[in-house]
Amino acid sequence: MKIAGYVRVSTKKQSLEMQIEKIKKWAEVHEYKVEIYEDVASALDDRPNFNKMMERIGDYDGIAVVALDRFGRSVQQLSNYFYMLEKIEKQLIVLDQNIDTTQKEGRFLLNVLFAVAELERDIIFERMEAGKQRAREEGVKFGRHSLKLPMNTIVEHYRRGASYSWLASTFNTSKTTIYRRLKERGLLEKKTEARKGR
Asked: Is residue 174 annotated as a catalytic residue, yes or no?
C-alpha cells in the first residue's frame, strides 16, 4: 500500500524534518510506502506541491499529515477535502490527533472537530457583530482608517533604493499606499527630476 505524506511550514526558517520523520516512522510501522510532498507556505500562500499531490491522489491509498492544520486552512476547506477523499475512498491520517478515517471512530472524531471549530467561529463572529453594534449605538463610525505608517523609516529605506514591493511587504501595507504616501511628500517628483538631470 502507498500513501502520500504532506508536510508544510510557514517560513524558510522553520524545518520540515520533524514532520517528515513522524510520517516516515508511522508508514514504516504500518508497512506503507510513502511519498512526501513539501511546501513552505503561510496560510495565505499558494501550496504548489499540495496541489500536485491532490492531482495525483489516485496513485495513493490516502494522505498522512502530522496535524490537521497542515492539511487545510479553514474548517470549510478541511471538510471539503475530507468529504472529497471519503467519496473516492481514500483515507486521511492525522498523527497528532490520532485520526484515521478508515475507522469509524476516526471519522466521528474528525466530524466533532469540524463541528467544534465551526461553532467557535460562529461565536467569535457573533461577538464581533455585537461589539460593532454597541459601538455604532455610541456613535462610532466604521470605515477605512488611514494607516499609521512609520514614514520617516520608509522614506529612509526608499532613498536607499528600496522597492515599493519590499516596502509594502516589510511594513504590512500595499504598494499603492506606499506610492501614495511617498508622492504626498513630494519624493517621487524629486526622484524623477534627479533622473532627468542625469
From this structure: no
